[in-house]
Design goal:
635 residues, 8-stranded antiparallel sheet, 7-stranded antiparallel sheet, 0% helix
Amino acid sequence: MGEIMRIYGTIRNSKNREPVKQATIKLSIEGTQIAFVSSDEHGRYEYAAEEEYIGQTLDFVIQKEGFIRKDISHEIDESEIKSDILLDEFKIKIQGKICDETNSPLDNATINFRIGNSTINLVSDKDGSFSFTVGQQFLNQTIGYEVSKEGFNIKSGKMKLLENLRCINLSKTITSVPDKSIWIKVVAVGIILTGVAIALFALPNDPELSIDPDPINFNFRHDTQAQTFSIWNEGGGTLDWEVRSDQDWIIVSPNSGTNSGTIVVSVNSAGMSPDNHMGSIILTSNVGTKTGRISLFIEEAVPVLTSTTTPTTTSTTTPTTTSTVTSTVTSTTTPTVTSTTTPTATPTTTSTVTPTATHTSTPTNNPPESFIDSINPSPALQGQSVTFVGHGDDLDIGDSIIEYKWKSNIDGYLNDQMTFSTSSLTSGSHEIILQVKDNHGQWSSEIKQNLKVKIFLYEDFESGMPENWLEGPTYESASYNVVSEIPRDINNHVLLGNGHVHIGPNIGQEWDDYSLQVRIKLLPKIGRCHLIIRQGDTNEDRWRYFIGISPDTASIFKTFNGEHYELTNEEIYLRNNEWYTVKVVCKGNLIKVYVDGEPVTEYIDDNPLNNGRIALETLGDGKVCYDDILVEELE
């Protein structure tokens, strides 16, 4: 037997789009494995199937050391399946600590994280510390946690990925924890790439009700399978909840629980009349209430039209040799059949017969509906990977969605899959459009959603020195280099400025209102730097604002017409060898500076510089590390 189906594609690194070789790809049909292949040196993989799987579900499991496992599925509607897949690296180191109520460290506390399809099991060390790494796509997300230790209350809640983690505090119990191996529920929401070096902080201890999906909006037909939603506690303490419906035909199970749970929603359409029935499910808890919308569409029975008439025969005999037989069939349509024969010496006989006729009408094909479920992140930076998720629905019995069409009013055609990711969107205000097509070839109307793709840049130096960055004035023995952050994190790369040196991207002269965010570390003994905004130059002149950062001062300066002006000077306190996030906002004539989210100085310029590039300048004999440079357009 020869090739009947071809399954192929390319595996690439989601960050730099480089091919990933020797990745393993497990292929399964409806849960049964059919092949196990590997990507070649160009990241390509291919499998020739000797059976036809049209109409079935093809599951991919892609794994590679150093990358996060990825699971995807395809509904097979043709004999050739091309699936190009992006893998996310394990790059980001997360560090945390478990403490008692007095902030004393607790060893041998159990923490288990589940991220995507990977489970991470952790135990705190003698200092109460734990650490693990996650892929860059989990940057800035919120993840749930649960911690257990014998003799202490189980604690669950959420942590946000930031720079430093305060202790997760456990309180003592009178009785020991009944189960020493607690599985952790983890919820990963809102994947937004804005930086690399991150850590965690715990949120308040009160329970907080969360559900997924939110809001609940389930549509059923008489043959629709049960649908589910999840409940979990985003805070601390105990979340008690109950679920009920306001219609007898809506069935929910279970009806109550504590903290987390999965609720199954089904419908019983027996004896119900054709109509679009509406109902609700109500989720009540000790901290709040949520409601969900449930619809059940029941079609009218397909009509069958029948007409029956008793045959009537009328005979007339005359001395003629011609006989005519006429048969008229009456139904929804009325064909007439006439036959003429000429027998010998046979009387004329006329007969009208109306037999039973049955006609079944063909139901009208209704167009399908398209839905955009999510566009993430939104807004996005130009060059950032954006994931689109949509689906289609067709209320006609037996109909299915066979094709998707994603478009942008700026970039045109985007993709033909239910979900996809792209990093090639043009900057601007996009109107994203989705249509779906059913198996009768009928397209849905367009559904639209707005997406802002912001210009400017993000740089984390993980791929070395950016190609479009140029050094400016450089003094003797001064330099910029991309180095590993030794000794703290050898896997994180930073830009090291050594001596009086100036560097920046060779783009952005047209930038006007924007923010510049940089993580900086001042190294002993005299680390100082300038963060430069709205810089421009001509043959005759050079202009810029520059924000001076030293261990004890934050200042705003201006250069114009060959003169330097100090606009503000405020006292601050920064420790050497510690990372700080400095953000400069320039909007109109306002310049405002923040350190770790706190405003430190600002200035309103009556004669403002209106546009220009960004740059970094290390001063004197000092050394400064820079990382995670983010420039965002302001609305």
